[in-house]
Design goal:
Length: about 300
């Protein structure tokens, strides 16, 4: 069954991820792809980074015992892997083999935004009273070509922070709310080739775009609870949405195509909770979900799905 339209038509590669028997991703927080099309899949199993090639073959895994709740990730221009841990309130930088090189924040120590975690998600977000210093449950990370680090500080804060390559805080912006430059869960963060900063502002159901200095440029509202953004070399923008769909846009915001569940029941649904999206050098698209957290469904190896682009 094809998904999408026109130049962005895809086929689902059934059973793409070839995990050993008994393994599961449980939830997939982030996907980053290196220059050899190896996928570093940040997940919430006992093996927090599982590395696969583009055919889905297992290469290796690492990160055991380090994370409390893995959330978002990216790969830097130097090939290093950056990951956020929202319950440990940290951002960590690793070699591709898993050696820890740098950690921003202090494990278990949250900044004071007024946030108090409750079992009710909406009540928890409402308790964020002010933008605070790093970190209170950071969600996403992106790295500039010169090595500077942007971090979305989302679940317990409403800010974006920019750090130097060596880990010095340069500046922050954002407050709780729905006005331009405010956030209700800055869920991830991406950079385009112009150096602009893209933030899927999840609970405001929009994507906000800023200058490198944090100045508001514009917002996109043709999305529902966006969780991640990926921008390819052709400046095509791919968005995962927690509302159970994927959308593809031009860099100027024109919708090219989208697909999702279309009313299917829980047992046969294509998506349960799209959380992260990435595209490899061949144009194939990968969607990772937090199906266990959001829907109580362990999809096993299908917690990440590959959609091969039709040539």
């Amino acid at each position: 069954m094809p998904f999408g339209t026109g130049k962005h038509t895809y086929e689902l590669v059934d059973g793409w991820a070839k995990l050993p028997e008994g393994w599961s991703f449980l939830d997939v927080g982030g996907i980053c792809i290196d220059g050899q099309d190896r996928l570093y899949i940040l997940n919430r199993s006992e093996r927090p980074i599982i590395v696969l090639d583009r055919e889905g073959k297992l290469l290796h895994s690492w990160g055991e015992g380090f994370f409390n709740r893995a959330h978002g990730s990216c790969i830097g221009p130097d090939g290093l892997i950056y990951c956020t841990d929202d319950r440990n309130h940290i951002v960590a930088k690793f070699t591709p083999e898993g050696k820890l090189l740098m950690m921003l924040g202090t494990k278990g120590q949250a900044s004071d935004s007024g946030y108090t975690r409750t079992w009710d998600f909406w009540e928890s977000l409402a308790r964020i009273q002010r933008g605070a210093p790093p970190f209170n449950r950071p969600t996403g990370v992106a790295v500039t070509p010169s090595g500077e680090i942007y971090i979305a500080d989302g679940y317990g804060n409403a800010r974006v922070h920019k750090f130097s390559a060596d880990g010095k805080l340069l500046f922050s912006w954002g407050e709780p709310g729905g006005a331009p430059g405010q956030f209700r869960l800055p869920h991830n963060i991406r950079l385009d080739r112009q150096g602009r900063v893209w933030i899927p502002d999840r609970e405001n159901s929009r994507i906000q775009i800023f200058t490198a200095e944090g100045e508001f440029i514009t917002e996109w509202t043709d999305v529902i609870r966006p969780t991640d953004v990926f921008i390819d070399e052709d400046d095509t923008v791919y968005v995962s949405e927690l509302c159970l769909r994927v959308s593809i846009f031009t860099i100027d915001g024109k919708l090219l195509t989208r697909w999702g569940n279309e009313g299917k029941d829980k047992e046969t649904a294509l998506f349960h909770a799209p959380h992260t999206i990435a595209v490899d050098s061949q144009g194939d698209l990968y969607v990772g979900e937090v199906s266990m957290t959001s829907a109580g469904v362990d999809k096993g190896s299908r917690t990440i799905q590959k959609f091969a682009r039709k040539k």
